[in-house]
Structures are given as structure tokens and as C-alpha cells.
Amino acid sequence: MGRSPSTGILAATLPGLFPVSPQVISVHITLSLLEPKPERKFGVVVVGVGRAGSVRMRDLWSTHSSSAFLNLIGFVSRRELKCIDEVQQISLEDALSSQEVDVAYICSENTSHEDYIRQFLNAGKHVLVEYPMALSWTAAQDLWELAEQKGKVLHEEHIELLMEEFAFLKKEVVGKDLLKGSLLFTGNFLSCLPLWKSERKIST
After folding, report:
1. Is the residue at 3 inside a domain?
2. Average confidence (pLDDT) over 88-117
3. How far apart are CA 180 and CA 199, in angstroms?
């Protein structure tokens, strides 16, 4: 039995039902693939509308099925922007107190992540935060514990965790102790700017 990803048609060979070779018998069943309709939508506020925040807002506005469960309520920014593509700017206080807001996407500068996470968790909101969650292991551990106490989801968005390289390394270190190592980050924001590098040493 196989399925054609392009047509959504399920093809099944049914041997024994007809007095001919099963290789020439096939039944094509056309499936009506309907996207599930969400029982309710989660209200989302985006905190910080730089590069990452702008992309988050764009995706929340998209017609992709994953966005069907989310409703963009507004955005929070230190700048007076009032409105971006028909999305209204709201104050941090309103975002924290609003009954419409269920989830906060933290896309601000790294040094502000810990404080924003703590405020939204204490306000009873789920939190998605761009990497890094905090600037120290102790702070991150404290935030995880706070999320658990509040019964809320705290998710750190780190695209590298979905890469094949990470899956390979995770498998390689099972049952081993990390003695030392290094992390090397390279990249640039615009093609016209020089490449920057940052290396951190890891030791126990």
C-alpha cells in the first residue's frame, strides 16, 4: 500500500479478490484531506520587532495550517511604531494583563530575555523565546522551575537543535563525560558586512 504525496490518492493492491494476477489489480481511493479546525485559537503577542520578531509576525499572518491555531493580538516594542502591517502595538502592561493573550514570543535583545520570560510566566502566559533563554545556566534553570510551578510551557527556539549535526553529536556523547570542547559561531547580518566569528571554550 502506498500514497502519492502529490495527489493525495491512496493506492492498494488487493490480491485474492479477483481471479487475475494481483499485480494488475489496484483500487484507487481519493481521500478528502481536510485540515482540522481548531476548537480555539491561542492569542499571541510578539515582544521585540527586529529581524526575528518581524519574521515571527510574518509567519503568524501566513495562511499555513500551523498558524490556524494562533491569533496575533499585537506586538510590544520600546519604539513608538503604533502599527505594523495592520498589527497594533500594545504596551507591555496590557500584554501581561490581557485575557486575550495566551502566549508571548520573546524576540528582543538577549540581555532582556530573562526579565521578559519571568514577567510573562508570572502573568500566567506560555512563553516561546529566541535563543538564548538566559545568559547563565543558573538563571535558565530558575526559569524552567518557574514555568513548572506555573504549569506553563517555556520553549527555547534554537534552530540548530533540528539540524543533522546536532542529532549526530547527541548520539555520539551518550554515556560519555564532556571534558573540554569549544563552540564556534560564524555569520553576518548583511552580505555587505564582514564575517564575524565568536568562539567559546567549554570545560568541566
Report:
1. no
2. 96
3. 13
| 30-43 pLDDT per residue, tens | 333 445 566 778 99
Range of the domain at 53: 42-162
Number of domains making up the chain: 1
CATH number for the domain harbouring residue 151: 3.40.50.720
Please give the average per-residue pLDDT across 177-181, as a whole number.
77
Residue 23 lies in a domain: no
What is each CA distance from 183 to 160, 164, 168, 171, 203, in whole angstroms?
A: 12, 16, 16, 18, 11
